[in-house]
């Protein structure tokens, strides 16, 4: 059903829908958690690891060639998007992406009770400006945090997949599997 393609940085194809997986890679003292989760998502969707790249080397204009995009970032400081993704989003948010579907995932630490995976909320708000349809809401059952901009007020679902590899690494595989299965259905609809 799925195949990878020979395309430039940060892209892979789904049989009926081109997909781009955009992620922020971490350097220095960071652990590369978002890169690992992005690779898990790619694997769950049948995409080769070699076809997943870092947004630090991607051009925002390239997203126009694809129908389904998946963006991922960790949350830093007071709920901020990782720096490379922030720069990438600056270029993406001025594009007209009407007709595109975009899904979001984020990595965080739920002990940061007021900012857990808030990068997902920030990505959502910035991408909404493009006119794209944002898909892939996911439940927050099993997490214990007080606030996140990834979860609209009075909602049970986040605006994307939230991953906590620090406190719940045992839940990542199951969440990725359930989310990617849901994304495949939403992409077809």
The helix content, as a percent range, equals 25-40%
Mean pLDDT: 77
Separate helix tally: 4
Structural class, please? alpha/beta
Q: Proportion of β residues?
A: 15-25%
> The biggest beta sheet, please?
8 strands, mixed
Distance between the termini: 17 Å
Number of strands: 10
Task: Write the element-wise H/E pattern from the N-terminal end onward.
Answer: EEHEEEHEHEEEEH
Poorly predicted parts: 1-29
Rg, Å, rounded: 15 Å
What does this structure look like?
This protein is 28% helix and 21% strand. The protein has helices at 33-44, 83-92, 118-128, 169-188; strands at residues 11-13, 18-23, 53-54, 68-76, 80-81, 101-107, 133-135, 138-139, 157-158, 161-163. α1 packs across α4 (169-188). The longest helix is centred in the C-terminal third of the chain and has 20 residues, at 169-188. The protein is globular and about 40 Å long. The two termini are 17 Å apart.
Give the gist of this structure.
This protein has helices at 33-44, 83-92, 118-128, 169-188, and strands at residues 11-13, 18-23, 53-54, 68-76, 80-81, 101-107, 133-135, 138-139, 157-158, 161-163.
